[in-house]
Amino acid sequence: MSDLATEYQGKATMEKITSLAKRRGFVFQSSEIYGGQNGAWDYGPLGVELKNRIARNWWKEMTQLQDDIVGLDAAILMHPRTWEASGHVENFTDPLVDCKKCKTRFRADQIPPENLAAKKCPECGGELTDTRKFNLMFKTHIGPAEDTANIIYLRPETAQGIYVNYKNIIQSNRMKIPFGIAQIGKAFRNEIVTKNFIFRTCEFEQMEMQFFVKPGTDVEWFNEWKKRRWAYYEKLGVNMNNLRWHQHGPDELAHYAKDAYDIEYLFPMGWRELEGVHNRSNYDLTRHTEFSGKDLQYIDQEANNERYIPFIIETSAGLTRTLLMVLSDAYDEEKVADKGNDDDWRTVLHFHPTVAPVTVAILPLMKKDGLAELAQDIRKELKEDFATDYDQSGAIGRRYRRQDEAGTPFCVTVDYESKENKTVTLRFRDSMEQARVPIAELGERLKKEIKEYKVAK
């Protein structure tokens, strides 16, 4: 697929993904019985499992597999001066305009330039208001009195919690530059324009890593982390034709950035940012030094106690946005020749087994004659190592289709032959092929299949 592609060429549409997400228990509208809360979503049984597995994959990649990165879980509520130092109080704004006729609100930077210049609404042609800035931080109060002395903010990003703890981690964990700090956590932005399902929301989770380096080595490390993050998505089994790099131009660069690239994914609504890799220079630690009065210089004992403010290379991805990418990337509709019926279709999610909400489903062919009891025994053996599901309701073909929609990579069917020779049928989601496997070898066979898994594209 060309980098110039502007239209989604896959089979998933946002309407199909939204429908499947609710039907199968991935994502629900927050407070739906009250009409829903705009910009907020609840993750159902399959959704929370998918989200947790994506987070665990990222955490393993960024901490367990790295010798120079440690983790952190910083508080959501931080001292208000933090956000003055970071520039969020002054700079964290969206340019907004309203249509005086249809009352629709737009981000000015997302309106066609010709409409903005003519102050003409792209929806109804009415007159637009002047552009004004709107700060995206949620503001609240802490303590018994609601006055300005007690104002506090819900954090709009997780990075600042890392910066203010950088010296603590050096001292407590004897970290030496270059090193990184990783964090997964909630962030909150008062987005006026929320759309495209869970892509842009007011409450979301970030997966961020801040890598501290010696000034002068930042370009080298910036390029290194671009390579590592691209390779991560290959490892995750993403269709790489739907990914591309976008470099921020001079007008796009944030106030703290020396250089910045986004990994963009071709979502159903077009190319959108998935993850950012940024060279933040030494802006953040310099500002926190200034506003806190604390010396945040690094003392490089391996360079004759040289003192300097480290540069920071940041990788920042939205967890819930990544979940939407995984859903979009995995979604497929296939025509299946089933028992002579050439018009049979199935909806299937081709999740990599490491992120699939359910790894293996156990399906007794019948509820009677001891098959259900044997199937439950098999599930008990497997559930220590795998995420399992049990389904004994309906025809076996219908159960297979339900598991395909949930993205379950493997199904184990327990039949009468299982009672006789202690074997089961192992069904593979992507190919729909089946193999007879001894019950005693089932666990090891599943581990082997997961290790050797190749994504079907």
From TrEMBL:
Q: Where in the cell is it found?
A: Cytoplasm
Subunit text: Homodimer.
Among PANTHER family, the record links this protein to: DNA POLYMERASE SUBUNIT GAMMA-2, MITOCHONDRIAL (PTHR10745:SF8), GLYCYL-TRNA SYNTHETASE/DNA POLYMERASE SUBUNIT GAMMA-2 (PTHR10745)
Q: Which PROSITE patterns match?
A: AA_TRNA_LIGASE_II (PS50862)
**GO molecular-function terms, A-Z:** ATP binding; bis(5'-nucleosyl)-tetraphosphatase (asymmetrical) activity; glycine-tRNA ligase activity
Q: Which organism is it from?
A: Leadbettera azotonutricia (strain ATCC BAA-888 / DSM 13862 / ZAS-9)
Which InterPro entries does its entry note?
Answer: aa-tRNA-synt_IIb, aa-tRNA-synth_II, aa-tRNA-synth_II/BPL/LPL, Anticodon-bd, Anticodon-bd_dom_sf, Gly-tRNA_synthase/POLG2, Gly_tRNA_ligase_bac, GlyRS-like_core
Keywords tagged on the record: Aminoacyl-tRNA synthetase, ATP-binding, Cytoplasm, Ligase, Nucleotide-binding, Protein biosynthesis
Function, as annotated: Catalyzes the attachment of glycine to tRNA(Gly).
> So where does substrate get bound?
107, 157, 204-208, 314-318
**What is the top EC class of this enzyme, as a single word?**
ligase
Question: Corresponding gene?
Answer: glyS
Q: Which family does it belong to?
A: Belongs to the class-II aminoacyl-tRNA synthetase family.
Protein residues bound to ATP? 189-191, 199-204, 273-274, 318-321
The entry's cellular-component GO terms read: cytoplasm; extracellular exosome; microvesicle
Q: What is its EC number?
A: 6.1.1.14
Limits of the Aminoacyl-transfer RNA synthetases class-II family profile domain: 15-364
Query: Which GO annotations describe the biological process of this protein?
Result: diadenosine tetraphosphate biosynthetic process; glycyl-tRNA aminoacylation
Quote the Gene3D superfamilies the UniProt record gives. Answer: Anticodon-binding domain, Bira Bifunctional Protein, Domain 2
**What SUPFAM superfamilies has UniProt attached to this entry?**
Class II aaRS ABD-related (SSF52954), Class II aaRS and biotin synthetases (SSF55681)
Q: Which reaction does it catalyse?
A: tRNA(Gly) + glycine + ATP = glycyl-tRNA(Gly) + AMP + diphosphate
The name this protein goes by in its record = Glycine--tRNA ligase
What domain of life does the native source organism fall in?
Bacteria
